[in-house]
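Inputs:
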Amino acid sequence: MFFETHLELLRAAAQANRTRVAWTGYAPITPPDLAQADAVLATFDGATLALSSPTGSVITADEISPYTGKALNVSYRAPSVDQALAGAAAVAATLRDADIERRVGVCLEALHRIHQRGPEFAAVTAHTTGQSLSMACSGSGTNALDRGLEAVAMAWSAMTRVPGQVSWRQRFGKSEVTLRKRFRIRPLGTALVVACASFPAWNAYPAILANLATGNPVLVKPHPRSVLATALAVGVIREVLTEAQLPADAVQLVVDTAEAPVAGQLATSPQVRIVDFTGSPTFGSWLERNVPNTLVFTETAGVNTVVLDSVSDLSAAMRTLAGGLSLFSGQMCTTPQNIYIPDAGVRTDAGVVARDDVVAALLSAIDDLAGAPRRAAAVCGALQSEATLHSITSLTDAAEANGTLLRRPVPYVHPDYPQARAVTPLVVRVDPRQGDTLPDGEQFGPVAFLVDCADTVSAVAHATASIRGHGAISSYLYCTDDAVIDEVADAYADAGASLSANLVSSMPMQFAAAYSDYHVTGLNPAGNATLTDESFIAGRFRIVQDRRQVEGA
Amino acid sequence: MFFETHLELLRAAAQANRTRVAWTGYAPITPPDLAQADAVLATFDGATLALSSPTGSVITADEISPYTGKALNVSYRAPSVDQALAGAAAVAATLRDADIERRVGVCLEALHRIHQRGPEFAAVTAHTTGQSLSMACSGSGTNALDRGLEAVAMAWSAMTRVPGQVSWRQRFGKSEVTLRKRFRIRPLGTALVVACASFPAWNAYPAILANLATGNPVLVKPHPRSVLATALAVGVIREVLTEAQLPADAVQLVVDTAEAPVAGQLATSPQVRIVDFTGSPTFGSWLERNVPNTLVFTETAGVNTVVLDSVSDLSAAMRTLAGGLSLFSGQMCTTPQNIYIPDAGVRTDAGVVARDDVVAALLSAIDDLAGAPRRAAAVCGALQSEATLHSITSLTDAAEANGTLLRRPVPYVHPDYPQARAVTPLVVRVDPRQGDTLPDGEQFGPVAFLVDCADTVSAVAHATASIRGHGAISSYLYCTDDAVIDEVADAYADAGASLSANLVSSMPMQFAAAYSDYHVTGLNPAGNATLTDESFIAGRFRIVQDRRQVEGA
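Outputs:
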């Protein structure tokens, strides 16, 4: 049985969730080479996948590799909204009545098999999202699997904190009453998981598996231009469900098109009781406001700020920051965007460095990265969407027009894919005190605003105000005074934001560790779903009890 | 410090929440005698209470004793909606920054002081709600305190499962990165607790204290005709907050009138992030649908069913059922309403008893209770509201007109208060197969419908259909076959309802034990808030983290 097979892993994950020390459930995945990746894509070229029993029309998804510019040419025999809902309803009772260990076992085995197929998943992920193959093995590979396992372990811990039964005895007046009570875990209802185009696994695995572990049938709706990696994951889960003698339709893939999206219709169906959404703030906040009486979990985006106060080694910090701006071409919800530099410059172990020199150091670090093709390719990957490139071009033109342009987002030269939608960071320099304006909210892609500010205090005030208005998922500070870090952390916490200080290392600054880092606080506009706190789990299941009086006990 | 004083109690409560065995944190409260109760009321006659620092107009509440018919004549210097919200905002940071133990300590000490003042609270509760003095000491006394303590312990357990800090170390490439991480509990925001007229403490204590323990400022809005008992509780909490050097306005009393209600305005204020409501299904479902992006916890009402299949001792079962119908004049959300009796009668140890004889036994048991004034007074109490009496009269007239009336709800003779709004159960007999209709949803007050049905299977089908449509909070079965109980429990569970079987004892059938019985499943229309599962707690707080890299560690 799958549960027993993976029980040791599950226990270790549950323990890591409690201690929050560094831990991983999955060995590193070795990236495929280019030929292997091409071979993976070739196997799907022209294929038609059916990942639900109810099947409606065939949709050929608009999936185009950001590296080759070629269509993946994969079709999906996808259910209509009504068919998908009916399919979920049809399996609900069986899934509900399966015991917890069977459902949890399916989740664990599915994670295991996805891990085993890591290189294949990485190839597909890279050619749909634009992630580099190495990132597809880590961020969308082991890290995503760890976040999935984290959620399964949290769900298992929560469910097993409810005892299965108890003999209850109490005196009422002269007589003692004994009741035999049972407590049973029951799912809330059909769940919808909406994944985003650029990072579909990291948020979707936790949502899908938390739902499945707690007994809720899941409809998975990937972004219409980034379907295949999610389809493969759904396929694995369906395969494991079947082997566990559970209905495959406990998880169904729903595919739509950009022209005829179905997420809103699904989310507002009375049958759908849980929605997990990763994507744009606009649709996320629409869901939060227009889908009442439903558990709505959102992770959208915000303005991630960096305050430069003081550092030991400026070059090291700028290398880290350049890496943070470049990583996956700024298409992560944790990418820094607004970088505050005080008028007095930045204090370092080698003395104060003037602001212009700090700026120069950052630009130089970006150029160094962009100028090394193999490294640039591994770090930057490619832009998932042509629309992001247009948006960056517009921002560049505007900055050039108003004299704030510092660095053009010129493409780096991809060593393997000359057609890649490659880009390096756009850097703009603004001074709000001079009337320069910062755009509202996140600018998707590698876009950095260097913000001149009076000092650290005013930088923090400006940054936290932007967080209150637009949200933030990750915030950064460089400061050598621990007491000041405490104060700044308090200010960010009061704005509902977490803070990372002094990240200068080979760890990407936006790295969020499963089992340790709580991702999204739920206290600012960037989303309400925390990976993974108890509120991400608790409402997905409820408890029904029965009690019967025991005579003469 | 209050936390240390009550730590042993808190630990025991947390343990009881896990094991769900019988346990109580509070010794029984001795009811006041009539003179003592009168003396309590006299101390408030003409008083004006101020239970918030921001104070607006003085409202003399429309509180009339269901026993004496006299006005309590208590006024409240209550804040306006804007004042209350501003008052909550003003204290939010201080409450948030107080450590968990201080806030939890306040909750525990407040429960302790309310318990110490048990007889005084009971007198006020009786003369506002109509509960008997003995019930006011148990249901609104120790049981409500236990439910409050249960919620505090659940909140404490949930918060302490998050470690305060961790040293996290992981290798990235050639270097090892050490991060010192802190995890801090943060409240969601201003909370509104709306209490009901007839049972204000039982649901409000858990909501108020869960909010307070997790750091959310609370606005408590009692029913305009049942304010004083809640006001006293708020007063105690404010007194303890002050002694703990926390702002008293962390809990404020908001008083409105039936003519100018403010709950909807408060609930939809963007500042209010949590709403706990106990009351009518109409307003509860309005809240569920019209207050998006807010944690909404509801407990309303449903159709509580009883299926009579078989019993050992029919008389004992009918005595229990008569008590259940009479207890607090049917004004509890757990009161049975629709009682199914099969065509073939009910099997007993003494042979099958025909339906007419079962009916006669039930009516006889009700009459026995109603005819014993002291016992009737202790069990039935009085009707909180004149409107309930009107509704019962209408139902009686309708039943008389269509020939379904079995028993008139004649008043019992209250031995101490001849003016009491006393009533005994109305019993109506219907056969849906003959075209008789059952009213939609709960009929508040002592109203029982005896429903003729073909057999147990059809009774369960009819009952669970009504639960799917109208909800249920408690459901009952009498059946001597354990395997059949399992089947019926499954059917009720599938309808999202809990089930109690074969309750025949001195324990009131609707008794729900804190720490053991989950109250409200959240899986049917009778509400979404379970006392007390983890979903009642989890979202009331979130976690912000900070992490800083440790050099050379």
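Remarks. The first helix of chain A runs from residue 2 to 5. Residues 72 and 462 of chain A are 44 Å apart (CA to CA).
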